[in-house]
Design goal:
flat, mainly alpha, 20 helices
């Protein structure tokens, strides 16, 4: 099956060993991007050697994978980074599945589930088959097995190492006596090889072997199994359409009547804002939180209902298809109004209490749900039901890309700065200090804002001093390199005058803080803040 087995397993070994080099005892940073590039490069190399080039339709996935994997070290905000990594892994799996088939764009939800299972099975099954086939070929031929031949070839190397060890040991001890620097270096080597570290070395070796084995299986699947790509229900719709059109009409009609009534009767409550609150006696918090979560849940449920009914409803006549499209179009319009209402409620809450990560995520999520509703409605009208899942995947990718582009933590800082221009607005510095290094350039800009009170200025200076200390005090390994940390450190050094008079102190619990007035402003976030 494989023409270049040795190259395949050498490639898998390099990728497996890179897991240890990049991740063992090191923070996650640029290492993830390097790992992805290694895997793609190994796959491209093997595809050329095996003459199993990817189809043209699969090539765009390479660009998408590289974009999301690089965003993993371009942003430091935790949720954004997590989504970047998950999107990379998802698109990488999609690329391996459709490497030689190229039908990824027509996958539905069932294909994703079945494909993930196939990839999992291949990562375990194919390496065993590859290794077993090699052994059997050697036994069937009348020649000496490759395993025995390799063993004979390695004997001179083993003998040479055994002869060299005592000689090198004697000479090394003499050189160590002659030079203290060489002696220190030799002691470090011996320290590294201490017997108490043997369990760690064994564990790392086992993990490298596992990653090598699984990587070999993934590469084999992409090269030889992906051209057998089959789609669930491509010839016959799946799941089968079993629900009658009358039943679906009643369901959609009822939901539409409910939504239209709700929007009509509650229109003033939807968009009344501050006046509505004063009339009804609600607080800002009650008004925003009571509405936003429930309306978002309604939107999600309606989206699920839309997709489910589209998949299982019989629509044999043209009249039925037109009626269904009209009903779903009405549903989409009602949901659009509800989404606008939820955004209005959230904006009202943010105006009073400021921006947070969760509120910003929610903002973007609502917008992309609206885009997804519109896309699915268009697909429904043009009978592109097969591409509902692709539309959902594109919406998720758009949501994650938007989070990266706007810089969540930077946006929160900028929006909270703008709030200072409104009457009676205050700055939640205790929340700002929890933000990642993505926010440092905006915090530096905030430090010189004339709208700040003296107390707020001191607290912003304290945040900058704490962050500068953390960046300087934390040793940075190259595997954990993040561009926001690099930019933050550079910006803090260039604007040291903003915080150079701040004095950091350490308490009995090894927590760092700054004295502001009669209170302690801690660098970290604690429950008593």
């Amino acid at each position: 099956m494989v023409k270049n087995k040795s190259t395949l397993w050498y490639t898998a070994l390099i990728i497996g060993w890179s897991f240890d080099l990049l991740y063992w005892g090191k923070p996650l940073g640029i290492s993830f991007f390097i790992q992805v590039v290694l895997l793609l490069a190994g796959l491209v190399l093997l595809s050329r050697l095996e003459e199993k080039s990817p189809v043209t339709k699969s090539l765009p996935l390479i660009g998408v994978i590289l974009v999301f994997s690089s965003l993993g070290f371009l942003r430091e905000e935790p949720f954004t980074r997590t989504l970047n990594h998950l999107m990379t892994i998802g698109f990488l799996g999609l690329f391996l599945l459709s490497f030689r088939g190229g039908r990824w764009f027509a996958y539905n939800l069932s294909d994703y589930i079945v494909g993930a299972f196939r990839l999992f099975v291949s990562s375990i099954e194919l390496p065993f088959k590859s290794l077993t086939t090699k052994k059997e070929e050697g036994e069937d031929s009348g020649e000496e097995s490759p395993k025995r031949s390799s063993w004979k070839k390695s004997l001179p190397y083993i003998r040479g190492i055994l002869l060299a060890l005592p000689i090198v040991a004697v000479l090394a001890s003499l050189l160590a006596e002659a030079d203290p620097i060489f002696s220190k270096w030799l002691q470090d080597i011996i320290e590294l090889l201490k017997i108490e570290k043997l369990p760690e070395y064994i564990l790392r070796l086992v993990l490298i072997s596992i990653w090598t084995f699984l990587t070999g299986g993934l590469l084999l699947h992409a090269l030889f199994k992906s051209e057998e790509e089959t789609l669930v229900g491509i010839d016959k719709p799946w799941p089968p359409r079993f629900l009658g059109f009358i039943e679906t009409t009643i369901v959609l009609g009822s939901v539409n009547l409910l939504f239209i009534s709700f929007v009509t009767i509650q229109f003033r409550y939807f968009f009344g804002g501050d006046k509505n609150i004063s009339l009804e006696g609600f607080t800002y918090s009650e008004y925003a939180r009571r509405g936003f979560g429930e309306l978002l849940a309604v939107a999600f449920f309606s989206l699920f209902l839309f997709m489910a009914l589209s998949a299982i409803t019989k629509r044999e006549k043209k009249r039925d298809r037109i009626t269904f499209s009209v009903l779903t179009g009405t549903l989409t319009a009602s949901i659009g109004v509800i989404l606008v209402s939820s955004l209005q409620r959230l904006a009202l809450y943010e105006t009073v209490y400021g921006f947070t990560r969760l509120r910003t995520y929610s903002h973007l999520c609502v917008l992309w749900i609206g885009v997804l509703f519109l896309a699915i409605l268009i697909l429904e009208i043009f009978q592109g039901w097969r591409y509902f899942t692709l539309a959902s995947l594109a919406a998720v990718a758009g949501f994650v890309l938007t989070m990266n582009v706007i810089n969540i933590d930077g946006l929160i800082t900028r929006q909270n700065i703008q709030r200072l221009e409104t009457e009676n607005a205050s700055l939640d510095t205790h929340y700002l200090k929890t933000l990642s290094n993505d926010a440092i350039p905006d915090l530096i800009q905030l430090a010189e804002d004339p709208a700040l009170t003296e107390r707020e200025s001191q607290e912003i200076a304290a945040i900058l001093a704490c962050r500068a200390f953390e960046l300087e005090d934390t040793p940075q390994k190259w595997q954990g390199f993040l561009i926001p940390s690099y930019r933050a450190e550079k910006a803090l050094n260039e604007n040291a005058h903003l915080w150079e008079d701040v004095q950091l102190k350490e308490d009995e619990w090894n927590s760092w803080y700054v004295e502001i007035g009669k209170e302690n402003f801690y660098c970290g976030y604690y429950y008593w803040d």
